[in-house]
Amino acid sequence: MASSRGFRSHGWVGLHTAALMLGVGAVKQDIKNMIITGFAGLVAGACSMAIGEFVSVYSQLDIEVAQAKRVKKKKVDGGGERKEGEEEEKKSMPNPVQAAAASALAFSVGAMVPLLAASFIKDYRVRLGVVVAAVSLALVVFGCLGAVLGKAPSTRAAIRVLIGGWLAMAITYGLTKLIGSSGLQ
C-alpha cells in the first residue's frame, strides 16, 4: 500500500463484502445470512488478495534477482568485483510475505465496515440502508485519501469511487433479486 495506486485499490475492499451481503440480502432477509455471507466474503477476499499479492510480488522479486545477477556477472566478467552495496540491494528487494500480509490486513479492515454496520440492526430495510450508507462513507474517504496521496483532485476521485461503488452494489443486489425471485431458491 505504499503507492497511491495500491491505496486506492484497497479502498474498494469493503465494497466487495457489502455487495455480497446485499446480494444475499436481496433474497434472504434475516441478519444471520447476511453476516455469515459477509464473514465468508472477508475470509475469502483476504485470502485471495494475500495470495494474489504474494504471487505478484514474488514474480517481481524473481525478476529483480535475475537482473541483479546479470549485472553482477557482467561486472565480474569485466574484471571488477562488487561486494559493497550487495546487502543494501537485498534489503531493497520486495518482500512477498510482507506484501501478502499487508494486503490481507487491508482487505480485512475494509470488509469490517459493512459487517459492523449490519451486525446490530435487526430491521431488514434499515440494515440494508445502513450497510449502503457506511460503505458509501468509506468509499468517499478512501477515494479522497487515494487522490490526496496521488496528488489528484479529491472531489472527482471521491465521486468516481462512490458512483462505481453504488453501481456495483446495485447490480449485485438487482441481479441476485432477479435470480432469487425466478424460483432458483
UniProtKB/TrEMBL annotation:
Keywords: Ion transport, Iron, Iron transport, Membrane, Transmembrane, Transmembrane helix, Transport, Vacuole. One of its GO terms (cellular component) is vacuolar membrane. It is found in: Vacuole membrane. GO terms for biological process: intracellular manganese ion homeostasis. Residues 74-95 are annotated as: Disordered. Pfam families: VIT1 (PF01988). InterPro entries: Ccc1_fam. It catalyses: Fe(2+)(in) = Fe(2+)(out). Residues 76-92 have a biased composition (Basic and acidic residues). It is a multi-pass membrane protein. One of its GO terms (molecular function) is manganese ion transmembrane transporter activity. The chain crosses the membrane at residues 36-59, 99-121, 127-150, 157-175. Vacuolar Fe(2+) uptake transporter. Belongs to the CCC1 family. This is Vacuolar iron transporter. It comes from Actinidia rufa.
